[in-house]
Amino acid sequence: MKKTALLVLLITCLFSPLLHGQSVPQNDSCSKSDPFCGSAAYTYPATTGMGDYAEPGPNYGCLNMQRNPAWFFLQIGNSGNIVLKMYSTPSKDIDFICWGPFTSPTGGCESGLTAANTIDCSYSGDATEYCEINGAVSGQFYMLMITNYSNETSNISVLHDNWNQPGAGPTNSNIVIESSIISS
Q1: What confidence tier does 162 reach under pLDDT thresholds 50, 70, 90?
Q2: Into how many domains does the chain fold?
Q3: Which residues on adjacent β-strands are paired with residue 84?
Q4: Looking at residue 133, which CATH number applies to its domain?
Q5: Is the distance from CB of 86 to CB of 158 less than 8 angstroms?
Q6: pLDDT tens per residue across span 120-132
Q7: Residue 73 contacts by C-beta under 8 Å, 6 or more apart in sequence?
Q8: What are the CA-CA distances from residue 119 to residues 55, 81, 113, 149, 184 (Å)?
Q9: Which residues of the chain form beta strands (DSSP E)?
């Protein structure tokens, strides 16, 4: 039984972009964020033409512009450090901001995305970015917004870069299964 559950969990994480309709991303605001889990890369087509700014309200920290945003949440399975690697193919400028911790997947959406709970942020001209969540707490949620600053067609991938290293905090993959059941 455990092997079957693990296989279902692995398949769900690997194919979660397909479960969420990869052709037209719907995660364009905090309240419509997609779950992220596991060590497999989550790849989605970068949106273009959405303008230079994301929804009003959040403190976007270092991001002077929030062009073509995509929103994700992740829940920590066990406490530890998390390193998320984000990159675009072909190589185009992407940026990001991460907030947390929160007690629910969209707990920060109303008023919690502030400068005080910004975890990491980058507004560089790079096509590869790294978000570091040091001391991530088991059971807590973190919000991640990635932008397609270049406004050019590409695929953006996100992966848990340090998932198999000592002291790494794994993400909770059950959130993908629960989200797919709820949205079905």
Answers
A1: confident
A2: 1
A3: 131, 160
A4: 2.60.120.380
A5: yes
A6: 999 999 999 999 9
A7: 33, 34, 35, 36, 105, 106, 141, 142, 143, 144, 175
A8: 19, 12, 10, 20, 32
A9: 34-35, 42-45, 69-75, 80-89, 95-102, 118-122, 128-136, 141-147, 155-160
Query: What token pair was written down for 152?
Result: 């050019």
Domain extent at residue 124: 2-183
pTM above 0.70, yes or no: yes
Q: What letter represents residue 109's amino acid?
A: C
Measured at the CA of 148, the angle between CA 147 and CA 149, to 5 degrees, comes to 95
Q: What is the pLDDT of residues 102-146, one digit of tens each?
A: 999 988 998 889 999 999 999 999 999 999 999 999 999 999 999
Question: How many whole angstroms separate alpha carbon 22 and alpha carbon 13?
Answer: 14
Q: How far apart are CA 180 and CA 37, in angstroms?
A: 13
AA identity, residue 22: Q
For 6, 50, 65, 157, 183, the CA distances from 94, given in Å and listed in that order, are 33, 14, 11, 11, 28
